[in-house]
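User: Reviewer 2 asked us to show a designed sequence for the structure in our supplementary figure. I'm pasting the structure tokens here. Could you produce the per-position amino acids so we can include them in the response letter?
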């Protein structure tokens, strides 16, 4: 499991809230949780999942009883 290091940015510089020791030349990834990523002007906006709701209702692959289909899917792995 990866450790979580809480930090704060002051003047654009990331400062850990408690001392952290890193190995020389250690590669560190930073996951920013405080703000969502703003897509660049050329990036495609993230689709809303609701636009897909009901899109398979007329599919010929899903004509059976949903409970029967779910049992068949589940039994494939046993």
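Assistant: Here is a per-position design you can include in the supplement:
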């Amino acid at each position: 499991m990866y450790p979580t290091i809480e930090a704060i940015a002051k003047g654009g510089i990331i400062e850990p809230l408690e001392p952290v020791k890193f190995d020389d030349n250690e590669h560190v990834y930073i996951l920013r949780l405080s703000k969502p990523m703003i897509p660049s002007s050329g990036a495609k906006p993230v689709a809303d999942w609701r636009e897909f709701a009901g899109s398979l209702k007329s599919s010929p692959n899903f004509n059976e009883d949903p409970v029967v289909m779910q049992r068949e899917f589940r039994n494939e792995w046993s």
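For the response letter, you might also mention the following. The mean pLDDT is 84. The two ends are 31 Å apart (CA to CA).
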